[in-house]
């Protein structure tokens, strides 16, 4: 009966707009005859005139109005059904229909809800009712296992909480009390309320019986899983970049807005527990990360270290435990991009490496101890340096990794060992030659671990592999400190080179000639003043164990000095003259930067890292006037050397970093690289001599200029072999990047827990 009433009401209230079926034309007299009040008659006439529901009688000239002002008015016959009735509209839509609704465009189609059947064809009313009945039954089946809407109760609770907090805030405002805590609670409550409201918007869909997804629905489900995994990854990255408070807050907010059925919902709930914790958020967050299995299986171990104030335990990530896990679950990291299905390529690559390494260090212990297992020996290097921690305090970072890398990213070849704030070991400094007792104590544990991996090997899913340390990487101060080198860059005019006996007096370290005295003293005498734990490693007592780092020797060394000297020299000789006049040094430096910036933008299509040229960033503090160009022949000769040295250095870097393999150079490539370095060394020295002769302090000779000559010497002496190390092989750009990332983690932790938090 209700269904039939719906049909009748809908028919009478809507179809009259398109046809007058079921109604008759009435004049005002007819309406009065029916007993209508005058006011009602006037309203009916006004309504019909508004909607143009009137016509003129051709016989009497009277105006007739359609009697359709009020629903169910004066029907000519009982309500009938019409095939064009829109059965997809519910009862609730009937009385909310806008009387001023415009008719649909001829091309427009009626929008039917997908859950109800479409009415088409010449079916009878019984057929229509059958379709409608089947649609209702299918909906009933779908909603058979509907659960209670618990989210509505949650929404009501949050609303009540908000009202209480608002009342509390008003009371505090009247009493002039601090209400920061209350506003924080309101913020959190509003967030929960918004999340609950968003969950309610989805209707009862979340409470229906779950069905296996098919087709596109299955793809959408997979996409949701992927989205959840991305959110978890973002939470962990937030922790690495900030702290546990930020990460747990992010996890809490995402868990609140997720549907309860999401596969990652429980993970985010657990990661967000620290958000509302009143205890140490770092501890709560990291404990949950570990419980979820989002950390490595290798455990942090406490080692006893000799600190200046006594012996204490310090956290480290043991090298052997980490190597075992890498070879078990992530073998590509140590097997230079290969897995266990490509063991033939792995063993061939390792055998080839050691065959070439024999040319550079034929007496290394690996050729004796593992003579028949070289295809199972993984060459590695250790790196140590100081980064920047909390309030710009230094923090010692030690890591290790393979020489043959799986990729250029630092995370693929830099593996953490330990971190230590400088305040914990700075009082133990007694000079480079005697090392640092605290760092030596930490290094001793690493050397024992590395020696175990070298002698006993590391088990894997495909036999044992042996880790061989062949180099110590790092900046010059850290290399000297860990190796106890008495000959270092701070000793000038005493011996300044760990590889030879060059000094600033009897054996000049700036002598670039083939007959220079320092060349005959290479490897004659070890630079160690005292014993270091490094010397216990196979090959660790040899001076070749200290790497020649192109990044620190060239980029952060002689190249930086050279670039500043070139700019200041060109300013001095009047090469850069502002168009608007002026000859002051700042004005000329500004003009120089304009040309440099234009070249970077329009030729290199790069953004320069340097934002300006000033006396300060070029370390040019002289305030003397610019000299006049009285000797053009002299400046021409000097400029020729300057141009030669910068082109040679640029070509050398391109050869090492772009055109060659990053580990090895062939004999032809070594000859080319040696010639370019020789050109630079000669031109730099000649430019320094000519500037010095005229009283200009440019192109100063530094210890790093001498260390670069050692690279040239190695390239020249290696040309008799088929292969030699690329000078960029042990460059530490990416190690510095990794150290910066791990140092940044320590800035968000308490200084007392920085070492442990960084390790975790």
Description:
The protein is an alpha+beta fold and 760 residues long. It has 5 domains: 2-140, no CATH class; 157-201; 216-291; 301-486 and 528-547, no CATH class; 550-725, no CATH class. It is built from 22 helices and 12 strands. The chain has helices at 2-14, 28-33, 38-50, 125-142, 150-174, 180-201, 216-241, 244-257, 265-271, 281-291, 319-329, 343-360, 366-369, 437-455, 476-483, 550-572, 585-604, 632-659, 667-693, 703-717, 733-747, 754-759; strands spanning 25-26, 54-56, 63-66, 301-307, 310-316, 377-388, 394-402, 415-421, 458-460, 463-473, 664-666, 723-725. Helix 19 (667-693) packs antiparallel against helix 20 (703-717).
């Amino acid at each position: 009966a209700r269904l039939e009433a719906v049909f009748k009401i809908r028919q009478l209230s809507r179809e009259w707009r398109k046809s007058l079926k079921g109604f008759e034309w009435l004049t005002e007299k007819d309406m009065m005859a029916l007993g209508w009040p005058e006011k009602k008659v006037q309203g009916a006439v006004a309504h019909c005139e508004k909607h143009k529901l009137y016509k003129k009688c051709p016989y009497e000239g009277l105006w007739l109005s359609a009697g359709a002002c009020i629903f169910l008015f004066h029907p000519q016959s009982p309500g009938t059904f019409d095939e064009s009735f829109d059965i997809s509209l519910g009862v609730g839509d009937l009385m909310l229909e806008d009387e001023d609704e415009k008719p649909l465009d001829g091309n427009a189609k009626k929008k039917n809800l997908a859950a109800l059947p479409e009415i088409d064809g010449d079916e009878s009313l019984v057929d229509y009712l059958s379709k409608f009945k089947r649609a209702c039954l299918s909906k009933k089946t779908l909603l058979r296992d509907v659960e209670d809407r618990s989210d509505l109760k949650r929404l009501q609770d949050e609303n009540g909480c908000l009202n209480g907090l608002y009342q509390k805030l008003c009371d505090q405002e009247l009493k002039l009390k601090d209400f920061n805590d209350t506003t924080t609670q309101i913020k959190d409550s509003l967030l929960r309320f918004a999340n609950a409201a968003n969950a309610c918007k989805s209707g009862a869909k979340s409470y229906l019986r779950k069905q296996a997804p098919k087709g596109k629905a299955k793809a959408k489900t997979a996409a949701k899983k992927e989205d959840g995994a991305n959110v978890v990854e973002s939470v962990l990255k937030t922790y690495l970049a900030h702290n546990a408070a930020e990460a747990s807050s992010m996890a809490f907010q995402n868990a609140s807005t997720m549907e309860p059925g999401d596969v990652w919902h429980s993970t985010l709930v657990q990661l967000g527990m620290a958000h509302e914790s009143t205890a140490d958020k770092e501890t709560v967050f990291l404990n949950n990360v570990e419980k979820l299995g989002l950390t490595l299986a290798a455990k942090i171990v406490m080692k006893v270290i000799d600190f200046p104030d006594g012996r204490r335990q310090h956290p480290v990530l043991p090298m052997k435990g980490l190597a075992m896990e890498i070879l078990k679950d992530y073998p590509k990291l140590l097997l230079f991009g290969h897995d266990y299905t490509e063991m033939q390529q792995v063993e061939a690559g390792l055998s080839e490496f050691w065959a070439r390494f024999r040319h550079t260090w034929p007496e290394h212990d690996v050729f004796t101890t593992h003579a028949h297992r070289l295809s199972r020996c993984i060459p590695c290097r250790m790196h140590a340096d100081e980064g920047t921690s909390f309030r710009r305090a230094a923090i010692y970072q030690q890591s290790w990794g393979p020489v043959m890398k799986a990729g250029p990213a630092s995370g693929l070849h830099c593996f953490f060992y330990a971190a230590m704030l400088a305040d914990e070991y700075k009082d133990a400094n007694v000079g480079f030659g005697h090392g640092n007792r605290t760092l030596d104590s930490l290094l001793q544990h690493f050397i024992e671990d590395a020696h175990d991996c070298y002698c006993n090997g590391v088990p894997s899913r495909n036999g044992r592999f042996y880790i061989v340390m062949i180099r110590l990487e790092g900046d010059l101060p850290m290399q000297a400190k860990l190796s106890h080198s008495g000959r270092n860059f701070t000793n000038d005019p005493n011996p300044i080179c760990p590889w030879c006996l060059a000094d600033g007096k009897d054996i000049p370290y700036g002598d670039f000639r083939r007959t220079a005295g320092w060349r005959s003293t290479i490897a004659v005498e070890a630079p160690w003043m005292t014993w270091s734990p490094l010397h216990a490693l196979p090959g660790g007592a040899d001076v070749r164990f200290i790497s020649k780092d192109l990044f620190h020797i060239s980029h952060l060394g002689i190249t930086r000095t050279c670039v500043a000297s070139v700019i200041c020299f060109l300013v001095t000789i009047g090469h850069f003259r502002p168009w608007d006049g002026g000859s002051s040094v700042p004005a000329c430096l500004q003009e120089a930067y304009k040309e440099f910036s234009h070249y970077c933008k329009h030729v290199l299509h790069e953004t320069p890292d340097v934002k300006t040229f000033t006396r300060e960033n070029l370390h040019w503090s002289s305030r003397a006037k610019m000299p006049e160009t009285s000797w053009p022949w002299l400046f021409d000769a000097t400029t020729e050397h300057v141009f030669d040295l910068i082109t040679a250095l640029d070509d050398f870097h391109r050869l090492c970093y772009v055109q060659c393999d990053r580990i090895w150079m062939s004999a032809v490539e070594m000859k080319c690289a040696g010639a370019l370095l020789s050109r630079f060394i000669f031109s730099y020295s000649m430019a320094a001599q000519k500037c010095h002769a005229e009283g200009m302090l440019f192109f100063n000779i530094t210890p790093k200029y001498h260390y670069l000559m050692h690279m040239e010497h190695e390239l020249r002496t290696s040309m008799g072999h088929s292969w030699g190390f690329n000078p960029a092989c042990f460059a530490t750009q990416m190690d510095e990047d990794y150290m910066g990332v791990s140092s940044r983690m320590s800035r968000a932790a308490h200084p007392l827990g920085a070492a442990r938090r960084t390790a975790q």
